[in-house]
Automatic annotation (TrEMBL):
Keywords: Signal
Signal peptide: 1-23
Gene3D superfamilies: Tetratricopeptide repeat domain
SMART domains: SEL1
Source species of the chain: Commensalibacter papalotli
Family annotation (Pfam families): Sel1
InterPro entries from the UniProt entry: Sel1-like, Sel1_AlgK, TPR-like_helical_dom_sf
Designated name of the protein: Beta-lactamase
SUPFAM superfamilies per record: HCP-like (SSF81901)
Amino acid sequence: MQFKYKLMIVCTILSYFLPNASAIEHSPEKKIEYAKIPNNNPDILNILANKYINQGSIPLAIPLLNKAAEQENSDSLITLMTLYAHGQGVPQDEKKAQDYFKKFKKNNRPSKLFDYIIFLIQNTKTINNYKKAQILLDQYHTLLDLQEKACYQYTEKMSKEKNINIICDAWIEDEPLYKTISSLSGIIAIHLHHSQSEIQQGVKELEIYNKYYLELTSHLSKGFPSVFLAQLYINGTYVPRDYHKARNILENSLKYLLRSQSAETQHLLGTMYQQGLGVKKNNKIAKNYLEDACSLNNEQACQVLKTLSTQKHIK
């Protein structure tokens, strides 16, 4: 079942229970009547919990989130982790935050976590969501550190017991994860821009990522840090405007991305050729990039294509 239809069904079912949820919220006992939620559906529990959170009633959301988390609902696990890590509506508790994160990681590949973080950064542009994304990155970084430390301690112990040299190679698997965390943290630092030094550090992280680690991490980051860096140079935001550098970043990114990951990269390249930004204007090259981006459901690319289609000749 496609996601949008699943969501419609969940929301339709939920509409029958929201009045009950409202009554619960204003009742003296403030008890959650789980029996009124069909099969304690974790998706509905999570939606109800977010309703309470948005109303500032976090204590009412916690039992719902816990009930959904018991069924390993990923969204609820992430929400609980961020609430306890940030101390939002509950006492700050790093151990609980790490426990929830471990449960999430147990059932989800790293790429799913990074997809979620990129979604928070790219599509829900609020300070709270940037902070939520950074908390997720920090928790993942901490967990990797703990796992790596345990690995080194174990191999050191085994080396002494067996009198042979055993090496921990966790860094080989973890390096792409660390580099992806650094690049996404750089983007968040630029978005939050608490200080000029943080912005400069964020740009530096992205430059290092793009130069040395794009190929290593493209399966995790989907090239998003490169697109973000290119946009900074195209717009002259926090860096001097440099179309030539932006084009090089985008063209280099295309070498390592799957076609399904390249929509925004191709949209930007197509737009640069269509407008002659740092390159000789060439509608034919622009059209090739934009058609591919449009076929990957990039709406902006489709709009630019409509503009090109009104021209009589494609040069």
